[in-house]
Specification:
This protein is of the alpha+beta class. It has 2 domains: 30 residues, no CATH class; 126 residues, Alpha-Beta Plaits. The strands form 2 sheets. Strands 3, 4, 5, 6, 7 and 8 form a 6-stranded antiparallel beta sheet that branches. The chain has a two-stranded antiparallel ribbon with strand order 1-2. Strand 7 and strand 8 form a beta hairpin. Helix 2 runs antiparallel to helix 4. The longest helix has 19 residues. The chain starts with 16 loop residues before the first strand and ends in a 6-residue tail after the last strand.
């Protein structure tokens, strides 16, 4: 066995070095150039040293679907582990701050603000999660916002799993971002 999954035999994934015309080496690109790959297709941390420091903000959202009875229990403060929203909020903030330790090629950033909000809903029963992250830096905070939502969602699950093991997490997605060379992004499809 050559270490490759047989289902991908004969195909090189995007970003892998492949032989080009006349035997020259090139990196296959999927759409735009992947900035975290060098000319030989190896992972690298992008050099942001020459980028301008600008105000940057990102907002991500996610959802935890759960039983109506679990939502009622949370609302009454009846979860034995304690205050579900306070614990998940602190965990989400810590998660956003820990992003460069969790995601290998993320830069450590001086975050100026992290806010986690929860929005319980009834049809179907769920808890919406929003994380807004701000910085004055050379690169964006999209990964920090997404990580904040993910860690808050995992904490909600952990706090409530004794009463509802059928909870579902997701989808988690970037909603919008501002700042930087690439300009603003606003998701074109609203959350259902």
């Amino acid at each position: 066995m050559n270490g490759r999954d047989e289902s991908t035999a004969g195909r090189e994934p995007a970003g892998r070095q492949v032989s080009g015309a006349r035997g020259r080496s090139r990196v296959r690109k999927a759409g735009k150039r992947l900035s975290h790959l060098d000319a030989r297709g190896r992972a690298r941390m992008v050099d942001v040293g020459r980028k301008e420091i600008t105000e940057r903000e990102a907002v991500a959202s996610g959802r935890v679907r759960l039983r109506a009875a679990t939502l009622d229990l949370i609302a009454r403060g009846g979860i034995e582990k304690g205050d579900v929203f306070a614990t998940a909020r602190i965990a989400g903030i810590l998660g956003a701050k820990a992003t460069p330790r969790l995601i290998p090629l993320c830069h450590p950033l001086a975050l100026t603000s992290i806010a986690i909000e929860f929005a319980p809903g009834r049809r179907p029963p769920h808890i919406g999660i929003t994380c807004r992250v701000k910085t004055l830096d050379r690169t964006g905070v999209e990964m920090e916002a997404i990580t904040g939502v993910a860690v808050a969602a995992l904490t909600l699950y952990d706090m409530c799993k004794a009463v509802d093991r059928e909870m579902e997490i997701g989808p988690i997605r970037l909603e919008r971002k501002t700042g930087g060379k690439s300009g603003p992004f606003v998701r074109s499809t609203p959350r259902a």
